[in-house]
Amino acid sequence: MSKILVALAFLTGASAFVTQVAKGPKAAALQARRSEALPYTTTELETGLAGDFGFDPLGLASAESLYPPFDTLRWYREAELQHGRVAQLAFLGFVWPQFFGTFASTDKYDFAELNPIDAFYKCPSEALIQIVIFVGALEGRRYLRCIKGDAAPGDVGLGVPGGWNPLQLNYSEEEYAEKELQEIKHCRLAMLGAIGALVQSGIGGQGIGAQVISAFAIPEFTGKAGYFFPEGL
Questions:
Q1: Helix, strand, or coil here: 46?
Q2: Alpha carbon distance 82, 87 (integer Å)
Q3: In whole angstroms, what separates CA 101 from the centre of its chain?
Q4: Residue 109: per-residue pLDDT
Q5: Which helix (H) or strand (E) holds 30?
Q6: How far apart are CA 113 and CA 205, in angstroms?
Q7: Model pLDDT for residues 9-37, shown as the tens digit of each residue
Q8: CA–CA separation, 197 vs 183, rounded Å?
Q9: Which residues of the chain register pLDDT less than 70?
């Protein structure tokens, strides 16, 4: 589980590409257009956000805000980016130990567990407390900056113009828009991937890497006559 703490330490570094979003509770409603997400339908949704493909079946983007700022378009985009970034780190944490190893285990702590669900319950309580405090501090800073403050959703001041930018990232307006779209697509894919990986780990009882490897293993019954029938049939 120490790998989770290491991954969380880089959480704020994932804030590279963000979009300016109006603080208003509603998205602008324009004339109906063909939905890119569901081409056989039309939509009036036009948020101007990266990754807006006209898919909002619950009407969250255009609904009246009843509990601002917690049900505004600004809040939803902030939540989507944050959940997506965490999901990317989570999925990386699922597969990294299988292929690159873990910390050495001791008599007291077992770091060799590759099933993420079992690894959580083997994590020392002291480490869990550190993770909670660390993540709580990050979340508090994010709330003050991106929700209560004027910073764009997802902008925690790292890797963007005017913020801490050790890699000296300097994109043109077109390149920046492309990176915003890439990030939100990766976030959405990672959220689905992380959920799938977690469910599969719970069902199979193995780490993700072990399950992928076993999927390509040749079953023993293929060496027997009538191998197309699994043993017992």
A1: strand
A2: 9
A3: 23
A4: 81
A5: strand 28-34
A6: 11
A7: 434 444 444 444 444 444 444 567 777 77
A8: 20
A9: 1-31, 159-162, 221-233
